[in-house]
Automatic annotation (TrEMBL):
Organism field: Microterricola viridarii
Pfam family, one: BPD_transp_1
Keywords of the record: Cell membrane, Membrane, Transmembrane, Transmembrane helix, Transport
PANTHER family with a match to the protein in the record: BLL4140 PROTEIN (PTHR43227), DIACETYLCHITOBIOSE UPTAKE SYSTEM PERMEASE PROTEIN DASB (PTHR43227:SF8)
ABC transmembrane type-1 domain ranges (all copies): 90-307
InterPro entries, A to Z: MetI-like (IPR000515), MetI-like_sf (IPR035906), UgpAE/MalFG_permease (IPR050809)
Entry GO CC: plasma membrane
Primary localisation category: membrane
Biological process, per Gene Ontology: transmembrane transport
Record's protein name: Sugar ABC transporter permease
Topological relation to the membrane, as annotated: Multi-pass membrane protein
Region (Disordered): 1-20
Polar residues bias (residue ranges): 1-12
């Protein structure tokens, strides 16, 4: 009897030790991630390494036929730093990025709020229209837009010319830098708004109806509910959408290239994407083109740093 009583605390201690013992982490999820990580490293790591190495070399047309590329160190970067054309393209790209991203976010936000306010039929019609605009291939869409702004047969010139006092007959939209980038902004915004609208609308559907009803009962107007309740709750969605738009609009290429083919290919009509393309494929100066590409990569990191830092702060607080 005494031995049984004496062993009871020992059994309890053993059970407590078994409960307190930390569980072993199962390595299966990490093994399942290995193929994806390897594919990502091969797909993105190799081009990045090649671009970095080439940016420190004099890599021209002869190097593509087997001649060794001379190592020039930071000569390409130093030449870019003193090139006024390069900085003109950078300033133009940053301005284009900021304007198009902000307008895209504003229009997408308004459409998302509209989809929450209208009836089912109108909302479904709007969603289908946005989805069709988003799904349209870029080349097909650009063909239509170039035709709309054509100086001789363009519908835009025809409609504007019908306004009394407005002379738009044979107006060349794509031969002036200001109107060229205005048309480019309209096209990029038109192609990007559906993504923003759907993303913000998905965030709006997660806002609690009870909270909005309580605010309405307390006397909050529609604008106050939007500003002080809805916007703070969907701020993470807006932040990531704005970040993606800034990155995409900084690297825009296809729209600018096709508009240049229909208008002018002068350097005043270049953004970073077309500038890199002209340096590499046009001038066969792949070393300089790689240096500009690395600069764009660093610029993208700088733009993304604020959002990444915010994520890290939120993770530490949680």
């Amino acid at each position: 009897m005494s031995s049984t009583v004496a062993t009871a605390p020992e059994q309890a201690t053993k059970q407590d030790s078994r409960v307190a013992r930390p569980r072993r982490r199962v390595p299966a999820p990490y093994f399942l991630l290995i193929p994806s990580v390897v594919i990502l490293l091969i797909g993105m790591g190799y081009p990045l390494i090649w671009q970095t190495i080439t940016s420190f070399q004099e890599f021209g047309l002869s190097q593509q036929f087997g001649q060794p590329a001379p190592f020039v160190g930071f000569a390409n970067y130093i030449e870019l730093a003193g090139n006024p054309v390069m900085w003109g393209v950078v300033g133009r790209s940053l301005l284009f990025m900021a304007v198009t991203a902000i307008i895209t976010l504003a229009v997408g936000l308004l459409l998302a709020v509209l989809m929450t306010a209208v009836g089912k039929v109108v909302r479904l019609t709007l969603q289908i229209s946005l989805l069709l605009a988003w799904a349209m291939p870029v080349v097909a869409a650009m063909t239509v837009w170039i035709w709309l702004f054509d100086r001789r047969r363009g519908v835009v010139n025809y409609l504007l010319d019908m306004i009394p006092g407005v002379e738009m007959n044979r107006f060349a939209w794509l031969e002036n830098p200001f109107t060229f980038f205005m048309v480019a902004s309209i096209i990029v915004i038109w192609m990007s708004v559906p993504f923003v609208a759907f993303s913000v609308y998905a965030g709006l559907t997660q806002v609690s109806d009870e909270v909005l009803e309580a605010a309405q009962l307390d006397g909050a107007s529609g604008w106050q509910r939007l500003r002080f309740i809805i916007m703070p709750m969907i701020r993470p969605v807006i932040a990531i959408v704005l970040l993606l738009q800034l990155i995409w609009d900084l690297r825009v290429f296809t729209q600018i290239t096709m508009l240049q083919d229909a208008g002018s290919r002068a350097s005043e009509f270049d953004l970073l994407g077309t500038y890199i393309y002209k340096l590499g494929a046009g001038s066969q100066d792949f070393g300089m083109a790689s240096a500009v590409s690395i600069f764009v990569l660093l610029l993208t990191f700088a733009i993304s740093w604020y959002y990444v830092r915010s994520l890290l702060k939120e993770d530490e607080q949680s």
